[in-house]
Predict the structure of CsbD-like domain-containing protein.
Amino acid sequence: MGAGDKIRNMAQEVAGKVKEMTGRATGDEDLEAGGRADATKGRAKQAGEKVKDAADKVKHAFKH
C-alpha cells in the first residue's frame, strides 16, 4: 500500500494518543475516550495495511 496511507494512519494514531493524554490531564473523560478511539482506529488501519502488503507479497510470489 501507499506510503501516504501509512502516514495518515500513523498520524491518526498519534493524534488520538495526544487527545487521550490531554483528556486525562484535564479530567475530560469524553476527550480521553475520543482520543482512545482515534488511536485504536489508526492502529486498526495500520494492521489492515500490513495484511494487504502481506497478501500482495504472497500473490507476487505465486506469479513467479
